[in-house]
Amino acid sequence: MMVLFASLLLASSTAAADLSAGSVIPSDATATQLVESCRTMIPRDIELKGRLILRNRRGITQAEHDYVLTRADGQTSLVVDGEALTPPAANETASSGSLLGTDVTWSDLTLDYLWWEEFSFDATRESETVHGQLCSVVLIRKGDRLVRVWVDRKTGAMMQAEELKAGKPVRRLWGTRIKKFGDRWAPNVMEVETLGSGHRTKITVEEMK
User: Fold this and answer.
1) Separation between Cα atoms, residue 169 and residue 8, nearest integer Å
2) pLDDT tens per residue across span 90-136
3) pTM here?
4) CATH, residue 34
5) Which end of the chain is more exposed for a tag (fewer CB within 10 A), N or C?
């Protein structure tokens, strides 16, 4: 597994202000270049601690789990409620690998789909905005798996992602709040929703180092 979820979305809401003097992404950037831009924001070594909070459509908590996500020397490990979890099999779909009955999967926490090798623009979603930021929308494919990613045109950071099945979104990941950890800004609250399920899961980041 390749990456940590917060390290990419951290720039999307904050770096735009810092880079307001001009875009760092060429206006004619290819889909591959946009995905590579997301990859460059990944720290080699980082540790995140927080909670996964499953809630129903009324916002009532159904379950809570502690997690520790560690990336060291290019390898990612995940511990939930004190138990080390193993990555899903290569042929396992993202939606079938939910963690402990939540909406969250291994791919949500590692964003491993950014290392798939087939990219294209989503022509039906050109120049959409997320949290006020103008985005390019990229489709990333591996076999029969497909993920739609919104990339901020100014910062090159990922703003939102959806897993698609039969051309329709089935799960969505996005950030809702940011916080400064030391000298680094990052989302400290994110949401993952299994569309139509009547529930969603909040991912909190309480410690980052």
Assistant:
1) 21
2) 555 444 478 888 999 888 877 888 889 899 999 888 789 988 888 99
3) 0.80
4) 2.50.20.10
5) C
